[in-house]
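Can anyone check this?
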Amino acid sequence: MASIREVAKLAHVAPSTVSRALNGSGYVSEESKSKIKKAVEELDYIPNQWIRNLYKKRTGIIGVMTPDIIHPYFSTLWNYLEAELDQYGYNVVICNTRGNQDKEREYLDTLERNLFDGLIVGSAFLPDEYYMNIEKPIISLDRIIPGIPLVTSDHHQGGILAGELFLEKGCKKVMCFSDPTRMELSSANSARALIDVMEKHNREVIIESFQWEEVVNYQLCMKRTRTLLDQYPDVDGIMALDLCAAAFLKTEKNKKILAYDGTYATDFNYHSIDSIVQDAKKVAKESVNMLIKLINDQPLKKREVLVPVKYKKGDTL
């Protein structure tokens, strides 16, 4: 059986270059790829799938961009995305940007240099034009970018559900942690819909926010919740992302609390938190299905898919 060194020798390249070409783990020139293809065919060195990827200029790798892998919803979603992509024979590289635009540019550059076959973007911080100028398969999961297909939860439905639940429980002043002015984010539809429902019944909605480091750090989140409860003692309802909702429950047990995401974090406390649940498994399935079509140059019937949400009863409403 031939070794990687024999392939490298026949192709007149370094063994490390052969390794990068076969694994899609770094840049390899087109000339070197062509030599490696001929060598592996002659020596019968690698599986047919790798040969096909080289012929088609594909790596078999999908990039999945996330603002932070420890966020409960994103970690849940990435797990489903990896399982779904595995069914199509793709490996996944998690691109953890932590909201850093320089890191985001690096991953987009990796896509443009054909090191990824496609990219699924959980959260984007760069201006739209960075994405609009890339002629590679990209799916967005929240940010609304002209020309980029969108797969996301039906957040308008989620906001209506939340408003109806707060009204049913008699809430008159609700605190919400989704910015309705962020028109570029599909997720902001939840706040806009909640406000519409509450204001039609002469109820008040207070809009506040958590910094990203507070959303993924429970201790910082707890500190922020105490400050907000001191600032708004008359609030009787709260809608927040799962980890933040859990922090409110830990701090204040006499207010109506509704989590928005519905992940495992809603069961951290003694009491289960009522939740608007995003169907992460369905979002993953729809986004991967759409991405595979783009990779294979197949037409898309729809360029926007809204996945329904649902209400999960708990002990906090």
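Reply from J.R.: I decoded it. The longest strand covers residues 61-66.
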